[in-house]
Amino acid sequence: MATRTKSGRHGWAAVIRTPLGLSAGLLLLLVLLLAVFAPVLWSHQASAIDTDHLLEGPSASHWLGTDNLGRDIFYRVLVATRQSIALALLATAIAVVTGLLLGTAPAVLGRRAGRLVTAVVNVAVAFPGLLLALFFAVIFGVGAKGAVLAIGFAGAPAFARLTQTLVAGVAARDFVAAARIAGAGRIRLLVRHILPNISEPLVVNATIGAGGALLAFAGLSFLGLGVQPPAYDWGRLMGESLNSIYVHPAAALAPGVAVVISGLAFNLFGEAVAKGLGVESIGVTRYRRCSEDSAQPEAPTSQYVVEDVVLSVRDLRVTFLGPDGPITPVRGVSFTIGHGEAVGVVGESGSGKSLTALAVAQLIEPPGQVSAERLDYLREPLLDTPDADRRQLLGTSFAMVFQDPTTSFNPTKRIGAQLAEGAREHQGLTRQQATTRAIDRLRAVRVPAAERRAGQYPHEFSGGMRQRAMIGMGLMGEPALIVADEPTTALDVTVQRQVLRLLESIRTEDGVALLLISHDITVIGQVCDRVLVMYAGRIVEDLPATALATGARHPYTRALLAAVPDLDTDLEQPLAVIPGRPVDPGRLPSGCAFAARCEFADDRCRTEDPELETQLDEGHRVACWHPQVVELGWPIRMGQR
Amino acid sequence: MTISSSQLRTTGGMATWSTHPWVRFGSRRLARLVISLLALVTASFLMIHLIPGDPVRSALGPAASQSLVEARRESLGLNDPLWVQYWHFLRSLVTGDLGTSITTGLPVSDVIGDRLPATVQLAVAAFVLAVLVSVPTGLVMGVLTRGGRRPRAELSFTSVSVVLAAIPEFLLAVGLVYLFAVKLAWLPVAGRSTPASYVLPVLALAIGPAAVLARICRVELLSVLQTDYLRTARAKRLPAATIYLRHALPNAVTATITLGGLLLGGMVAGTVLVENVFGWPGLGSTIVSSILSKDYPLVQGVVLVYGIGVLLVNLVVDVALALLDPRSTIRES
Amino acid sequence: MADTNGTAMSELTFEQVTVRFGTGSRALTAVDSVDLTVPSGQVVGLVGESGSGKSTLARAAVGLTELAGGQILLDGVPLQHRSRGPRPLQLVFQDPYSSLDPRMTIGNSIAEAVPRSADYSRAGEVARLLELVDLDPERASAYPAALSGGQRQRVALARALAGRPEVILADEITSALDVSVQGTVLNLVRDLQRQLHLSMLFISHNLAVVRYVSDYIAVMYLGRIVEFGPAAELLGDPQHPYTRELLAAAPRRGALALDVEELDPALRAVADAEPADPHHPPPGCRFHPRCPIGPLVRPDRELCQTVDPTPDAGRHRHHTACHYAAAALQAVDLVQ
């Protein structure tokens, strides 16, 4: 909703600028112009009876031939535009107004009356529109008036349902509650807060609905239930000439084509508007795997010996093609993870930390592209390994834990089966063996009554239990690395502790390395050996967790530490704040990305981007022109591990 | 002692019985069906009474004598108080008596029994065809065009399906008649005599819904491909076929069934138009001719049958969804 | 009416407040007989995990949810939820992206909350309030889309203040914000509270955040208040085992609270227990299935499984709803 509104008025202009929107708009305009002017210009030609040319085929004087009274079909189709369009719009107006009244009634009336209206709409909406239209056509009688009312009322339930859904969606939002607390009455809530926020989808659907009404009207007229002679609309023209389709097909097909074209004009315009006002997508981009990295693995450059390295990443980049050229949310990230080591990546939303994790896990889907000078897992260069081999390697030795355990399990499959299927695929276990292993793994992650729970569906698990099962899924093979992307963010603090404790014990007992992604620097500090601080797609500092307390050098790291209150924060001092906003990856400044928010920034920071370089002591890298060396200006609150 | 323990068992059994999710689902769904049916029956009863003026007079025409109109009103029971008429209507409905057609004098139930099979054949054949074509097409298109791949294929698929979906059944029917019956003379223009005569009506009824369903299928698949659990499946490094068939398909199909059910309901109604183009001897042509001839008892009966058909389709869809999605029933408990 | 710049804020009291959702077997008692007082001019922090009922309590206070029992008093007078007119209680919501109408300028959103009977100009009041929350009054004509999350939350605060409320309820107002912005909002809340002597119920799942702004802290578990006391005292000397659990899980740098290896199996099982299902709260003390000093660890404490400690809470320090509140101290010390 927020994005939809952001596009606001300029969104409508954007609709017209798309090729689809433009052509649909022009088509619609043409149809409407015809509806206004065709009868004025050509009604004489359309009704002129020419007894010399009865039921003739197309000719120079009659482009589409003539009907059984010798009237020109081309002009009749043009003139019928007004009748067809006007009646359709009238019917749409009835549908929209009735639908709006019924749809907003529950919000205005009391609870009981509202429920009754909802129930009526629910019953009515179960029946197809055409059936309702026939029903109402019986009541209102055969003829144009009856058909307008019939199609209008038949369209009302669907529109009422739509309105109800939209109203309920907006009414549940906090700003409506806030207005209620501020003392706004029901009518004011509806007029000032709810209706403006649902107007766009309503307009879009009314437009599409007008297309539907046009077709429905043509249908009724075709059946002889709509417009009655001597008046005529497209449906009537078709119905009249159906019997002579053998001798004179054009007479039957021409009005049909007119109906389809105008119906499409309404539909496409509605769809284009819907698309234009909807959420902006990243844009249609083409799939292309980036593997320009031909550099062969060379001698290791890090401080770790080669046998101990689980993951080695150099110059990792993730690129998406945006509407204004490529966006690179991860720009040249380099790090290594040793055997059994716990490395934390911390950063705000948009810093590229999660994309880094996904890129390492080879889970970036097109249109995203991953490139790296080196991306070695257990000494296999992942970007150059054939697909099948890579799947086998990662399938057995690599575990991934996602942020939201609620959405990360397939809701339609049992937990046990979801754990088992990877092992059946990669380890060649039978169904029986894999299930046994799954139950064993659930036990290992301390899921109580593992055997019973393996047979349950994800929604029968609590959040913490699901996250444990997710970790258990990673342990089905023999992982050398667990990548956990915000594994505790969606969980309560006490449960969060349980999950972190579980990860910690797996690491210490089985020597599994851990790459933990989190926005919470205290979580990272508690669990990890080493911390990578990311800002705007780069690592700005890489330091031992023990040095977080006193040794952080980068102004951003220091600000992050100071901004988060903990149980030892000085209550007399205001909390430190980082001015400004995080950088938009599509609009990176030149120089250091943090410069605009940094109190130490100078001209050099604003022009030259600092490299991540080793500072003073081994194992501590900083990307800053002015690394801070002074002790942090507040009491040291960090204990030693 | 024995009594009390058996009583305990009974009450315990009762408790589990009434709280069993399927029982609760079934009873709730049944209640909804009954309410909808009642609404349908009441609406079709009221239909005649909502017509402005005297339905008998308008049915018999202005030439009919006043005494004839009166006699017919009396025989139809239209002079009784409304609630008495309603009661008679309900009572005769239960016995399968839908009244007598004004124009032909035949029992309405006989006319419907005569015409119904043709309509059901048409609707079912069209639905089966639409599903068999559209669901695989939509899913394959979804897989091929995921993540913005093959933009040209996507564009042509979308535009073809949008155009096909925008053409109403009767227009399509006329177009098909022109092309295959008039121009090429491959198939009969109308009637229901040979197997070949089924082809055009079924096609005319199936194409539009198939286009809509294929689009929906593709969109559903694409949205399932975006979910976290599909990422989890990829993180398990499963082969692509397993990911699509075991993880994506079941989840994409549940939403497709919901919309497919709506379309089937629409197809039941769509038979009205298609039957009229092809002179198909079904309920659709009956209802139109009876509306035009103001044969209200017949209209009433056909509306009821169509309505019940739609309600049954909805019921089947709901049950299918409950069977397919483990959350839908168990969540209630 | 209270003077926003004056001193006469008021005391908010919850008396045996109960809130229920749904009926039959799906009924859920979100708030169960809660007694809580927000003293005049003081900030009460309310902590608890999701589903504990803390937000429901706030929504009930402003009339967004109906009470199933008990009453809510302002200065000893029961609140009447009028459908019109100014409300003495104002709520600030968690998500500033949802709590501001995207179709209204922020100035109009604030003006809407200014009482109609006010004898001052609305425009002037909007400008004054925007300045109060450190926003440029020129931005009154901006739409929410043009503002960052932190700025929106400040607008939401200004709107709450526009009603010249006697009590402000802040529901998780920093949890939707990025860490770098969270500090700004917390600082503002503290400044405003001190400047305007607001009475305030500050709800958060984050104990460190609550600690930073509160004079008193109330701990909520499964619809009940289990401990209440002055902030420093409660944090320094927690009585209820659940409070201790929360403290242990709260961010405290470096102090790694993850060591479990040495725990005996019973303690470990309790530490790994699932949070209870609010639809089916455990009998007796609701915390007993997760309690490290409860019946699952100490078999002699069957009392916890049958007898609700809430009625006797008044006898313990911090109104702690725990049969073994005093003994809790030693036992947990041994564990940790």
Short description:
The complex is a heterotrimer of chains A (641), B (333) and C (336). Chain A has 641 residues and is an alpha/beta fold.
Structure, explained:
The complex is a heterotrimer of chains A (641), B (333) and C (336). Chain A is α/β, with parallel strands linked by helices and 641 residues long. Chain A has two domains: 79-269, MetI-like fold; 309-412 and 457-622, Rossmann fold (3-Layer(aba) Sandwich). Chain A has 21 helices and 13 strands. An eight-stranded mixed beta sheet of chain A has the order 7-8-9-3-10-11-13-12, sandwiched between helices. In chain A, strand 10 (530-535) and strand 11 form a beta hairpin. The longest helix of chain A has 38 residues, at 186-223. Chain A starts with a helix and ends in a 19-residue tail after the last strand. Mean pLDDT of chain B is 81; it is low at 1-15 and 329-333. In chain B, helix 2 runs antiparallel to helix 13 (296-324), helix 8 (169-183) crosses helix 9 and helix 11 (240-278) packs antiparallel against helix 13 (296-324). Chain B is flat and about 85 Å long. With 336 residues, chain C is an alpha/beta fold. Helix content of chain C is 31%, strand content 18%. Chain C starts with 11 loop residues before the first strand and ends with a helix. Chain C folds into two domains: 12-221, 3-Layer(aba) Sandwich (Rossmann fold); 238-335, no CATH class. In chain C, the strands form two sheets. Chain C has a six-stranded mixed beta sheet, sandwiched between helices. Chain C has a four-stranded antiparallel beta sheet with strand order 2-1-4-5, with helices on one face. The longest helix of chain C is centred in the middle third of the chain and has 18 residues, at 179-196. Chains in contact: A-B, A-C. At the A-C interface, helix 1, helix 7, helix 8, helix 17 and helix 18 of A face strand 6, helix 2, helix 4, helix 5 and helix 6 of C.
